[in-house]
Automatic annotation (TrEMBL):
GO terms for biological process: amino acid biosynthetic process; aromatic amino acid family biosynthetic process; chorismate biosynthetic process. Keywords: Amino-acid biosynthesis, Aromatic amino acid biosynthesis, Lyase. GO terms for cellular component: cytosol. Reduced FMN (FMNH(2)). InterPro entries: Chorismate_synth, Chorismate_synth_AroC_sf, Chorismate_synthase_CS. Pathway: Metabolic intermediate biosynthesis; chorismate biosynthesis; chorismate from D-erythrose 4-phosphate and phosphoenolpyruvate: step 7/7. This is Chorismate synthase.
Amino acid sequence: MSTFGTLFRVTTYGESHCASVGAIIDGCPPGLELSPQDIQVQLSRRRPGQSNLTTPRDEKDLVHLQSGLELGVTLGTPISLLVKNEDQRPHDYTETDFYPRPSHADYTYLEKYGIKASSGGGRSSARETIGRVAAGAIAEKYLKIAYGIEIVAFVSSVGKVHLPATLAPPSLTPQNPDEEDDNAQDALSKDFIQLLSTITREEVDKMPTRCPHAETSERMTQRIIRAKSAQDSIGGTVTCVIRNVPSGLGEPVFDKFEASLAHAMLSIPATKAFEIGSGFRGTEVPGSQHNDQFVADANGRLRTVTNWSGGVQGGITNGENIYFRIGFKSPATISQPQETAQYNGTPGSLSTRGRHDPCVVPRAVPIVEAMAAIVVMDQLLMQNSRKAAASLLPPITTLPPTMVMPKKAL
Ligand SMILES: Cc1cc2nc3c(=O)[nH]c(=O)nc-3n(C[C@H](O)[C@H](O)[C@H](O)COP(=O)(O)O)c2cc1C
């Protein structure tokens, strides 16, 4: 289905070349001041045609709010919004009338529905993510005002060009080839942790690649241009941090916080991988180094000394920064000829025309931020409703002390 979330429910609609794309957002709290500009900022960061590293499809992606607010204030009723598809060129896709694009969604959509949009990627197009980005911007506005929550994503690799080891997520740091050497000091560096605590969207947007390290960004730019010149494409990774999330979010079994994040992130087109905290690197680091030991902060609140967990333990947030990384494949639509087969089985060569992203990660950054905001918002509403329900009960004084949080030592 096209709906995500339990209490903050986002339904997106639209295909690549239909009249408009958009979303209905149900569950936004009433009384939130919201302007089109709050949403437009993120839509403009997602829109195509921002640089020579993205598709030249020229869409302004102006948001039109249809319902759910009056005089700039949300009513608590469903918010519906749309963005017109303006720069459509369906004729760019005539070859794909006959050929399913290798590794795109053409074949599987037809197998599933028995019918498909006549041009472009239809529903599988990244145009669909406009509704998510708009919904995420609304969630973010609430999260920022109510909790000071900040979400920043950035590009951490393009092809084999990675952030320097000191700034990279743990699993991107060079692996020690010595099987007997358990020392993991090279991973989870102070600089990476510092980057997570301080990085801003303004810093990320200074670079056309959205990699915040100038020298790496320049190499990534060259890598993307090389793919584009060869009528080819290249993949990459996006790392995201969520700051100031209260502890206690995440439902402990099937809707663990990290499971919901993974669901959200792997629903973004072109994603192939998700990892949180130490990720795959965590499989190599012995428990003695991987465990995040507790320490009380100045207010007596338990914090962790390290953050291999990525801010989530037992599927529940622990109040530390939540960080995760998503792998995006090389986009499927490339202009160079590919030996493949038509829908009817006839072998042939497909050279796809049309305007395409040689690498999706610079544009994926605001989409990742949006999906993260939607997950946090949904989990917050769930936890707050549980807490509100429990707060109406009289206190129980008969429980053994081991069953409740002890008074602070400090
Ligand atoms: C921001 C963004 C832009 C994209 N641009 C393109 C594109 O120009 N060409 C393309 O073939 N795929 C593009 N994709 C990916 C396709 O939407 C996606 O690969 C396709 O629907 C197949 O789905 P899958 O890769 O998730 O299996 C883009 C994805 C994102 C997130």
